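Example S7 (structure tokens).
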């Protein structure tokens, strides 16, 4: 699949690039960002996939998180895709900020009119990694996943649904139990329909409760002053309880004074990349 380079900037000794391609899963043009650390010039490097939150594109993480320095030091390629298909001319796709464009929720939709294009789960777990492995010095055996908010939900479900595929997983303020919160209920009813059993396939808390696979060490940072935590959109306690029941190790850090923004991510991204490096470079 042909890639078109959109931009390239020298950064922390490596290169921050953005590419565009025609997605077979999503049936539209998609952009993704890739950071190539200096070590990528001399051999295959591990890859950390970053999944962004509601309303984001591939730009938010690469311009606001300050992730490149740590990725450069640890020799990790960073890949940050967009958060939904774009320009599909589906009626209603741009009507709300928490459904449709910028809000793919990392599921494979089963309902009309979304099911043809809104296949973000398969895009993230299958199409994009193949593209990265074919076009960049990426080690396909060493991949991990992280994300924020809706993307934290995406990272957790990708890791829990594919035991052994991802060497590490972490999240910032993830939507931990979407079937129990307003954001998740809106998205899942629209993309997956009324059948609640299909929702459970994309809920980290439900997936953790039935997880059986290699040990997965989860790191989660959550701002204590996050307005969406107090609005019961994130529900981390439910996930922690499920993980504790299954003896899945979770380091959960409630960070006083921090909110839901990229200022929060910027403050702790180095810890997360270090967490991923521990398992990717083992």
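Recovered sequence:
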């Amino acid at each position: 699949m042909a890639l078109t380079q959109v931009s390239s900037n020298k950064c922390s000794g490596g290169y921050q690039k953005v590419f565009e391609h025609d997605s077979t899963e999503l049936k539209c043009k998609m952009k993704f960002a890739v950071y190539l650390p200096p070590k990528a010039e001399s051999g295959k490097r591990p890859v950390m996939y970053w999944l962004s939150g509601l309303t984001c594109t591939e730009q938010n993480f690469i311009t606001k998180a300050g992730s490149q320095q740590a990725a450069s030091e640890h020799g990790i390629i960073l890949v940050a895709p967009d958060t939904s298909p774009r320009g599909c001319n589906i009626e209603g796709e741009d009507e709300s900020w928490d459904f449709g464009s910028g809000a793919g929720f990392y599921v494979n939709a089963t309902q009309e009119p979304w099911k043809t294009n809104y296949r973000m789960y398969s895009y993230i777990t299958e199409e994009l990694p193949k593209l990265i492995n074919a076009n960049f010095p990426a080690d396909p055996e060493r991949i991990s996943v992280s994300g924020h908010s809706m993307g934290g939900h995406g990272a957790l479900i990708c890791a829990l649904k594919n035991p052994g595929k991802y060497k590490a997983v972490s999240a910032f303020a993830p939507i931990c139990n979407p079937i129990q919160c307003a954001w998740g209920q809106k998205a899942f009813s629209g993309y997956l329909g009324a059948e609640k059993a299909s929702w459970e396939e994309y809920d980290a808390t439900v997936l953790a409760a039935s997880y059986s696979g290699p040990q997965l060490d989860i790191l989660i940072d959550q701002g204590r002053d996050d307005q969406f935590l107090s609005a019961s959109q994130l529900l981390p306690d439910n996930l922690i309880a499920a993980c504790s029941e299954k003896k899945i190790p979770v380091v959960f850090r409630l960070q006083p004074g921090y909110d839901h923004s990229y200022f929060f991510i910027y403050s702790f991204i180095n810890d997360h990349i270090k967490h991923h490096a521990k398992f990717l470079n083992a």
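Notes on this example. The first helix runs from residue 59 to 64.
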